[in-house]
Amino acid sequence: MSRSPAKVKKSTPTAGTARVSGVKIVKPIVYGCASWSLPKSHLVNDRTHGWKLYVKPYFEENLQLFIRKISFTLHSSFAEPTRICSEPPYEVNETGWGEFKAVIKIYFKNSCERPVTIYQTVKLFSEKGVDYTIKKP
Protein backbone atom coordinates (compact mmCIF):
# COMPACT_ATOMS: atom_id res chain seq x y z
CA MET A 1 0.00 0.00 0.00
CA SER A 2 1.48 3.33 -0.96
CA ARG A 3 0.79 6.63 0.70
CA SER A 4 0.77 9.99 -0.93
CA PRO A 5 3.26 12.48 0.47
CA ALA A 6 2.00 14.82 3.16
CA LYS A 7 1.01 18.25 1.99
CA VAL A 8 3.35 20.94 3.25
CA LYS A 9 1.96 24.38 3.88
CA LYS A 10 3.86 27.07 2.00
CA SER A 11 5.69 29.55 4.16
CA THR A 12 4.17 33.01 4.25
CA PRO A 13 5.39 36.20 5.91
CA THR A 14 2.95 35.62 8.76
CA ALA A 15 3.75 31.93 9.21
CA GLY A 16 4.65 31.15 12.80
CA THR A 17 3.04 34.27 14.17
CA ALA A 18 -0.55 33.05 14.28
CA ARG A 19 -1.99 31.77 17.54
CA VAL A 20 -2.11 28.00 17.84
CA SER A 21 -5.44 26.72 19.11
CA GLY A 22 -5.31 24.83 22.39
CA VAL A 23 -1.67 25.71 23.17
CA LYS A 24 -0.81 27.80 26.21
CA ILE A 25 2.70 28.85 27.25
CA VAL A 26 3.06 29.95 30.87
CA LYS A 27 6.16 31.77 32.10
CA PRO A 28 6.06 32.82 35.75
CA ILE A 29 7.48 36.27 36.47
CA VAL A 30 8.20 38.35 39.54
CA TYR A 31 7.33 42.04 39.52
CA GLY A 32 7.34 44.66 42.20
CA CYS A 33 8.90 47.68 43.80
CA ALA A 34 11.81 47.98 46.22
CA SER A 35 12.54 51.25 48.03
CA TRP A 36 15.12 52.62 50.45
CA SER A 37 15.70 55.84 52.39
CA LEU A 38 18.38 58.12 50.99
CA PRO A 39 21.05 59.50 53.34
CA LYS A 40 20.43 63.15 54.24
CA SER A 41 23.67 64.10 52.47
CA HIS A 42 22.24 62.78 49.15
CA LEU A 43 18.86 64.54 49.24
CA VAL A 44 18.12 66.60 46.12
CA ASN A 45 14.84 68.49 45.53
CA ASP A 46 13.22 66.89 48.59
CA ARG A 47 13.63 63.39 47.12
CA THR A 48 13.82 61.27 50.25
CA HIS A 49 13.83 57.74 48.81
CA GLY A 50 15.38 55.70 46.07
CA TRP A 51 13.22 53.04 44.45
CA LYS A 52 13.20 50.41 41.75
CA LEU A 53 10.33 48.95 39.69
CA TYR A 54 11.18 45.60 38.15
CA VAL A 55 10.01 42.57 36.17
CA LYS A 56 12.18 39.46 36.25
CA PRO A 57 11.81 35.72 35.66
CA TYR A 58 10.69 33.54 38.54
CA PHE A 59 13.17 30.91 37.42
CA GLU A 60 16.51 31.98 35.95
CA GLU A 61 15.21 32.00 32.37
CA ASN A 62 15.84 34.21 29.38
CA LEU A 63 12.62 36.21 29.02
CA GLN A 64 13.94 37.80 25.82
CA LEU A 65 12.77 34.70 23.98
CA PHE A 66 9.17 35.76 24.68
CA ILE A 67 9.24 39.47 25.59
CA ARG A 68 9.85 42.19 22.99
CA LYS A 69 9.80 45.11 25.44
CA ILE A 70 8.38 46.30 28.74
CA SER A 71 7.13 49.83 29.29
CA PHE A 72 6.97 51.42 32.73
CA THR A 73 4.65 54.43 32.99
CA LEU A 74 5.44 56.55 36.04
CA HIS A 75 3.69 59.56 37.56
CA SER A 76 3.38 62.47 35.12
CA SER A 77 5.63 64.64 37.33
CA PHE A 78 8.72 62.71 36.16
CA ALA A 79 10.74 64.20 33.29
CA GLU A 80 10.28 61.04 31.21
CA PRO A 81 7.17 59.36 32.62
CA THR A 82 7.29 56.43 30.15
CA ARG A 83 10.42 54.27 30.20
CA ILE A 84 11.00 51.40 27.76
CA CYS A 85 13.23 48.39 28.48
CA SER A 86 13.95 46.24 25.42
CA GLU A 87 16.35 43.88 27.19
CA PRO A 88 17.09 42.68 30.72
CA PRO A 89 17.28 43.92 33.34
CA TYR A 90 13.67 45.06 32.97
CA GLU A 91 13.75 47.72 35.67
CA VAL A 92 13.55 51.45 36.36
CA ASN A 93 15.60 53.10 39.13
CA GLU A 94 14.56 56.53 40.38
CA THR A 95 14.37 58.79 43.40
CA GLY A 96 11.33 60.57 44.77
CA TRP A 97 9.31 61.67 47.77
CA GLY A 98 5.79 60.38 47.11
CA GLU A 99 3.92 57.19 46.37
CA PHE A 100 1.95 56.57 43.18
CA LYS A 101 0.54 53.81 41.01
CA ALA A 102 2.75 52.83 38.05
CA VAL A 103 1.65 50.94 34.94
CA ILE A 104 3.83 48.08 33.67
CA LYS A 105 3.01 46.85 30.16
CA ILE A 106 4.61 43.67 28.79
CA TYR A 107 4.78 43.33 24.98
CA PHE A 108 5.42 39.87 23.54
CA LYS A 109 7.59 38.86 20.57
CA ASN A 110 4.57 37.22 18.95
CA SER A 111 2.58 40.19 17.70
CA CYS A 112 -0.64 38.13 17.80
CA GLU A 113 -0.46 38.19 21.61
CA ARG A 114 -1.99 41.20 23.32
CA PRO A 115 0.20 43.09 25.80
CA VAL A 116 -0.31 42.37 29.50
CA THR A 117 -0.91 45.37 31.77
CA ILE A 118 0.06 45.30 35.46
CA TYR A 119 -0.58 48.04 38.03
CA GLN A 120 2.06 48.38 40.75
CA THR A 121 2.12 50.87 43.60
CA VAL A 122 5.48 52.53 44.19
CA LYS A 123 5.49 52.27 47.99
CA LEU A 124 8.07 54.29 49.92
CA PHE A 125 6.70 54.27 53.44
CA SER A 126 5.63 51.38 55.65
CA GLU A 127 2.13 50.96 57.02
CA LYS A 128 0.92 49.16 60.13
CA GLY A 129 4.42 48.19 61.19
CA VAL A 130 5.36 46.52 57.88
CA ASP A 131 8.66 47.85 56.55
CA TYR A 132 8.71 47.93 52.73
CA THR A 133 12.09 49.61 52.51
CA ILE A 134 15.41 47.90 51.98
CA LYS A 135 18.82 49.02 53.15
CA LYS A 136 21.09 49.96 50.28
CA PRO A 137 24.81 50.48 50.82
UniProtKB/TrEMBL annotation:
| Principal localisation | nucleus
Gene3D superfamilies the record matches? YEATS domain (2.60.40.1970)
Ranges for domain YEATS: 19-137
Its subcellular locations are:
Nucleus
Q: Which cellular component, as a GO term, is one annotated location?
A: nucleus
Q: Which Pfam families match?
A: YEATS
Query: What are the protein's UniProt keywords?
Result: Nucleus, Transcription, Transcription regulation
Residues crossing the lipid bilayer are: none
Asked if the Swiss-Prot or TrEMBL record annotates the protein with the keyword Kinase, the reply is no
For the biological process aspect of GO, one term held by this record is: regulation of DNA-templated transcription
UniProt xrefs under PANTHER family: PROTEIN AF-9 HOMOLOG (PTHR47573:SF1)
Q: What is this protein called?
A: YEATS family protein
